[in-house]
Amino acid sequence: RLPTAGQTVGGFYDQNRIVAASNVVKNASDFGKQKAHWNGVDLAVDVRLQNGLFLQGGVSTGRTMTDNCDIVDDVPELLGSQSADYCHVQTPFEAQYKALAAYTLPYGVRVSGTYQSIPGPQIAANNIYVGTVPSLGRPFTLGQTNVNLIRPGTMYGDRLNQFDLRFSKLLNVGRGRLDLSLDLYNAFNSDAILTQQNAFGAAWQRPLTVIQPRFVSFVCHRRAAAF
Fold this sequence. Notes:
By secondary structure, the chain is mainly beta. Helix content is 2%, strand content 52%. The chain is built from one helix and 14 strands, in the order E-E-E-E-H-E-E-E-E-E-E-E-E-E-E. The N and C termini lie far apart (74 Å). The relative contact order is 0.14.
């Protein structure tokens, strides 16, 4: 249930209804039920072929639901600066894909790679309102309020797609071995956004952090001979 019209103004809690605090202690269940759950599925597959090819991959998808409408119907001040419409939030199904492959080429050269595709960051539009709201007929109780203009869980940024590659070779050197490897991270130089500006305004959705750019790493490990 949503808070009644007499408890909210324009979908937001009416601060005029604040009453003096009391020392009465009640169980949270006296005000209603709060729900939160995740529904989803995970699927993984491993394949080993006779020619030395190894494949592993999987997909994970699900969605989250939170609902405290039953509680804010009796205690609407819990809404704070959020709209009463946001007391029930359910995200869409967002899939994550991950894969790994490894193969040994002639002359003992090993090639392997990983791939991941994950949902982009959730988009919000937090706007600060200052001053007097005509529908309230007075200033905000705290002078201002911060309101998310986008329903949570409804907008996401571009997906992150990342490929990492490794080339390695074992060399016999004396009584030991050298393990040489070349790692290529973010092989296709993705510029996916990890976090962004969620404050509504001229800089809204401006990237704050992006995935690490492509870079190469050379590694050499010496393995002693076993006796």
